[in-house]
Amino acid sequence: MDQLTVLDLVDDDDGDVPVITQTKSKKKGKKTAQRGKGKQREDPVTPSASNSEKVAESIILDDDGDVTLIVGNLSTKIRVSSQVLRLASPVWKAMFSDRFAESQASEVEFPDDDEEALLVVLRVAHLHFLQLPPATPMPFHRLLDLAVICDKYDTVKIVRPFITAWSQNLEELSLQNGYEESLFIAWTFGYHSIYKSLASRLVLSAIIGPDGECLNSGGDFLGPTMPLNSIETILKVREDTISTLLNTCYKKFDATLATPHVCTVNQKHVEACHASIVGSLVRGFHQLGLFPDRPAASEISLNISELSASLINLPIYSCKTNTGSSYNYDYNTIRDHTACTKAAQLSDPIQDILKNIPSAALDSHKTHMDEQAKK
Ligand SMILES: [Zn+2]
Hints:
By secondary structure, the protein is α/β, with parallel strands linked by helices. The chain has helices at residues 28-37, 82-88, 90-95, 98-103, 115-125, 140-153, 156-166, 170-173, 182-189, 192-205, 230-258, 270-287, 304-312, 347-355, 363-373; strands spanning 2-11, 18-24, 39-42, 57-60, 67-71, 76-80, 105-110, 207-208, 214-215, 320-322, 334-336.
């Protein structure tokens, strides 16, 4: 009996349907050892034993199946029908083509795939609905594993009737730190609004680690499973927005410093009035690391939410002058210069910038999700 190993999974020219390249792998000794220790059972039992216990478990999804998949850490064997696989997935259709039939192989290794996620897809394909997970939110890591399988083998369409129930808390989870890989799940199953919201949240909340890596607001890595170009796009929008924020602040500062100041209380106090405003900006920028050197946006590790809140709330102090006798401390003659600070306030322009941050979902992401949503 021949055995095949999936060696390569490469995109075809249009990048749409991956093509499986297979070569024969003669591993008779290993296979015999696995089979010798194996126990065979009918589905419905989901493999749940620890790795040390997982010795060649066999699951039969089709009594008349013509192929056995050797999955994950190569300890689970799943008997399936190659015809069902061809119907379920264009990738498997290519993989189990006529060339496969001619090879007369009956075992194929899937060493890189998560066993449970693959089994969910295979059970749907073989109509074993009673053995599927319940119609309740799936644990996040299971949903992510399922998304990886559905992306890799293009099997979103066959889990579509179930995925709404399994992913019903995804939107809620995607708002929390630690669930950033919701991006990949949303990208795979075509949940454009979840993708867009999460990408926007990450633009505002992402911080840059010491080695330039993208971290969530808690300082944790976002996870390895992300859609192509998603994090790069988020970081680009983040940096562009910070650049706009900094430019706006420095323009405001330069204008405040260089433009002749107008004191709305009494022009004879213009020097003190101007100095208190310029001094407030210098002090506030210095505390944020924005003065005296003017850092580039790429050097800012703070997230946009913190940076913009600090700038919006940057206190601009105004002087108080006494219009009466210098010996007269009558409150009626003390004048407050708060109104003179108006032109230097940063709040309005920064809020305008925050309202106009571009989307971190590329057109190519949206196109992909629209296509996935139709499956
Ligand atoms: Zn004034």
